[in-house]
Amino acid sequence: MQNSSKKYVVDIWSDYVCPWCWIAKRRFEKALESFSEKDDVQVNVRAYRLAANHTPEPMIPALKRKLGNANSALAMMGTVSNYGKVDGLDYCFDTMMFGDTTDAHVLVKAVEDLAVKTRLVEALYEQSTSHGKSLFDRTSLAAIAKDAGVSDESIQLAWSSAELRAEMEADEQFSAQLGAGVPLFVFNNEFSVVGAQPEATFLKALNHMVESMQVDDSSPTGQVCGIDGCKI
């Protein structure tokens, strides 16, 4: 885990093709905004690929296959869409794609400026989830990145850097040790919250972090995606 000059660190593992991850991101951001010590928190974006080495395909058949039947997929998509609306997020499953997000994760790692990185992460979710933009084509990714303010130098670095790809793989290896799917939030490398939890749960975790309290294994688990599928 990287060092921080801030008092507190939250590491977030997610994938841009994870239906629950955008919702979890928005809920955590709302909790952080109301957190009394938000200026002392460093948030690190960590990589997790739900579909490493998987050829891109439309999201709906991918969900049907992973969840085992069409009814489960429809129920899951309906639940996600409804929760998304509450948080102001537009899920267009008809145009969403599922596949290996290596280039998207490495592109985020190539950006050093925190404000630009934050805009890029949000843009990757929004453009792929709401507007059907591809995260698997470098021309599409570059266009999304440029609109978010990413420099041409950073984009070229993403496509050429073996070191950044190794960082992505190290993120995945660490999360594998924790044995959890995504979204996954680790607070000060001491305890974790898994899933698209309510805003209040994230705020409670932030306060626990300040109090240096451990959350035991019985802590609640919200909606989560793993390599084998997404829970409703």
UniProtKB/TrEMBL annotation:
Q: What residue stretches are annotated with the DSBA-like thioredoxin domain?
A: 9-206
GO MF terms listed in the record are: isomerase activity; oxidoreductase activity
Q: Which segments cross the bilayer? A: none
Extract the InterPro entries matched here.
DSBA-like_thioredoxin_dom (IPR001853), Thioredoxin-like_sf (IPR036249)
**UniProt keyword list:** Isomerase
Work out whether the entry's keyword set contains Isomerase.
Answer: yes
What this protein is called in its record is: Isomerase, putative
Gene source species: Pseudomonas putida (strain DOT-T1E)
Q: Give the organism's phylogenetic lineage.
A: Bacteria, Pseudomonadati, Pseudomonadota, Gammaproteobacteria, Pseudomonadales
